[in-house]
Design goal:
Elements: H1 2-27, H2 36-116, E1 120-129, E2 137-140, E3 153-155, E4 160-167, E5 172-176, E6 190-194, E7 203-209, E8 214-221, E9 231-234, E10 246-255, E11 261-268, E12 277-282
Antiparallel strand pairs: 1-2, 1-12, 2-5, 3-4, 3-12, 4-5, 6-7, 6-9, 7-8, 8-11, 9-10, 10-11
């Protein structure tokens, strides 16, 4: 047994010396061509290194891809936030530009009206719109404390849209022109004339045709010189609507009741949809 242990130690020592010489041979460069054992050992070591290198490289690449994916996710998250903020800022900018344009137009409108007449224009915001399609009214944020009175004309920068039909302390109700009806005692007809022919033309807008979207003007004399394309304005007669406010453009002239007068259809100049601000027209009292 002791002899076997001694031989085993000798074998281990010899094996160590062989490995040492092999390694020494591998580390020495520029000594000429390698021997067959050296080539065998080098090829074996390279093959074993390849076995470990490929899985290690794959694992390293996998974790590198995960790290890159995390970076891309964070970048994508940041880009989405930036795009969202850009869209919000763009929408806000467009809204401010539209509001700024409207205010400039409103200012120019009031300046022109001051030169044309002595009316006072109270700008008001629309706070509610009636959801009832048969009761086209809206509420504005001006009332009795602001000097608003019943039957005052209401308009936008485009033209007449209605009249005040109810006044409260802090707000008022406005009846729109597309709710005017000659069978309703609470509705007020509009005395109108033609712009440029104020002394020659006359008619009464008494109703709104829901099928065509046009205002209906009656009581037009057959000899009246009004023509298709003429601009219709308030005449000031009737003591409800002041004179000179544009109402709309004549689109057709036809026979009226009993063939005695003409029936005229007028396309409203102002839109009755999406109204946000209006002007309440205050006429100075004659004292």
């Amino acid at each position: 047994m002791f002899k076997f242990m001694g031989n085993k130690r000798l074998i281990i020592l010899l094996s160590g010396l062989v490995c040492f010489f092999i390694l020494m041979g591998l580390t020495l460069g520029n000594r000429g061509q390698m021997t067959l054992p050296e080539k065998f050992v080098k090829d074996t070591v390279s093959w074993v290194q390849g076995l470990f290198y490929k899985p290690a490289a794959s694992i390293a690449g996998f974790f590198d891809d995960i790290r890159q994916l995390s970076v891309i996710y964070e970048e994508n998250k940041t880009l989405k936030l930036t795009v969202s903020l850009y869209a919000r800022d763009t929408q806000m900018l467009n809204k401010l530009e539209a509001q700024n344009k409207y205010l400039k137009d409103a200012l120019n409108f009031t300046e022109r009206q001051k030169q044309a007449n002595k009316y006072t224009y109270h700008i008001a915001e629309v706070v509610t719109v009636s959801p009832d399609p048969y009761n086209n009214t809206l509420s504005i944020n001006l009332g009795a404390r602001d000097g608003i009175k019943q039957d005052m004309a209401v308009m936008t920068i485009d033209g007449l849209v209605g009249r005040v039909n109810a006044v409260y302390e802090f707000y008022s109700n406005v009846q729109l022109l597309n709710n005017i009806n000659d069978t309703d005692s609470n509705s007020k007809a509009i005395a109108v004339t033609v712009k440029g022919r104020e002394s020659q033309s006359f008619g009464m807008i008494e109703s709104f045709d829901t099928n065509t979207g046009y205002l209906v003007m009656n009581r037009v004399d057959q000899a009246d010189p009004m023509q298709v394309g003429d601009m219709v304005i308030t005449s000031g007669l009737g003591l409800v609507f002041p004179d000179g406010i544009e109402v709309g453009k004549i689109v057709s002239i036809g026979p009226g009741e009993f063939g005695i007068t003409h029936k005229v259809l007028v396309e409203p100049r102002a839109s009755f949809r999406h109204i946000r601000e209006v002007f309440v027209v205050e006429v100075p009292e004659v004292g």
